[in-house]
Amino acid sequence: MTISLKNSKITKKNSLENLLTIGRYFRSKFGETIYKVPVSISGFTCPNIDGTVAKGGCSFCENDSFSPNLQEKKPKFKLHPSNPLNPYLQEQLKQLELQFNATRQRLENKFGTKKYIVYFQSFTNTYAPIETLKALYTKALSFENVIGLSIGTRTDCMSDEILDFIESLSKDKEIWVEYGIQSFYDETLEEINRGDSASNMREWISKTKQRGLNVCGHLIYGLPNETQEMMLETLKQTIELNVDSIKFHPLYVVKNTLLTAKYLNGKFEPISEELYIDTVVKSIKILPRNISIQRITAGIDDNTLLAPLWCKNKHQQIQKIKKALVKEGLRY
Ligand code: SF4
């Protein structure tokens, strides 16, 4: 569901137009601040990691294929939609509860928060047997003060059966499906080892919207061989699919990924900070005002980051983007 400017509390103050951030959207809809609580459940993987459609995962993704530490900590067992056996379900349910309670407590102590959305964030959170998904989603919604779910996934891991279930949950809960789109150019998707196609993304985003579910599209700017025109074209196509919310993310290179070698061999040049900021500002200017914005950038402040180094400081980037938006009369 989207909230139109007419019905929301979005106002112009000091001649700046307040953009519909997801925080403002939730406050407008629920009358209070809603916090997303990210959870990461062991056993989940992706079809382009486990060999179903590809191996190694997306070229920028640091996953089990490259990280022996991660493999040691997590059970070797990986979920697969076609295998109904899940010996780790009870462990996963416990993990879900522990992670949720730990973060909720922290948020409550720091901000006095009261209402939450459980955000299934890591890997592909619909890539599992349906009974596992039902158990995890139902458990998450049973926690006190949880008003909904946000489910991060890929369009090639959605099915009518899963949509049936989450649509039933959406009758009285706030349910979001967050699709990694990244780009609508098939040549880019191939280059980054995505294992999915633009036509499949269009099909499943449309199907999800037809169920009345909230959809957030995740875009990456700075993908190999993409010009600003291509990035903005991907955004336009995402808008045409009637999504409810957008996340913008710069592509950065971290160690132990498929992209690492390309970068080190001079075969990949990261996007500059100037081009990234300019593209995000141009994007926000063409974004219909009823589409909320969940993220304008991302960064990683540890020694796994190889390039670009401006991605080290996310807060600095946010300030720069906010400043650039102010010049356009917009307040993020
Ligand atoms: S879909 Fe996400 S988790 Fe899976 S390989 Fe790509 S980036 Fe990594």
Account of the protein in words:
- It is globular, with a radius of gyration of 19 Å.
- Helix 3 packs parallel to helix 4 (130-142), helix 8 packs parallel to helix 10 (273-286) and helix 10 crosses helix 11.
- Strand 7, helix 8 and strand 8 form a beta-alpha-beta unit.
- The chain has one domain (12-331): pyruvate-formate lyase- activating enzyme, CATH 3.80.30.30.
- By secondary structure, the chain is an alpha/beta fold.
- The protein is 39% helix and 18% strand.
- It binds iron/sulfur cluster.
- Residues 46, 48-49, 57-58, 61, 63, 123-124, 154, 180 line the site of iron/sulfur cluster (SF4).
- Iron/sulfur cluster binds at residues 46, 48-49, 57-58, 61, 63, 123-124, 154, 180.
Question: Key terms for this structure?
Answer:
332 residues; single chain; alpha/beta; binds iron/sulfur cluster; pyruvate-formate lyase- activating enzyme; 11 helices
In short:
Helix content is 39%, strand content 18%. The protein is of the alpha/beta class.
Q: Could you tell me the radius of gyration in angstroms?
A: 19 Å
CATH fold call: pyruvate-formate lyase- activating enzyme
Number of strands: 12
The hetero molecules present are: iron/sulfur cluster
Give the helix level as a range of percent: 25-40%
Spatial separation of the terminal alpha carbons = 21 Å
CATH architecture descriptor name: Alpha-Beta Horseshoe
Quickly give the structural class.
Answer: alpha/beta
The strands making up the biggest β-sheet line up spatially as 3-4-5-6-7-8-10
Strand content: 15-25%
Specify the number of helices. 11
* Secondary-structure element pattern, one letter each: EEHEHHEHEHEHHEHEEHHEEHE
Shape: globular
Number of individual domains: 1
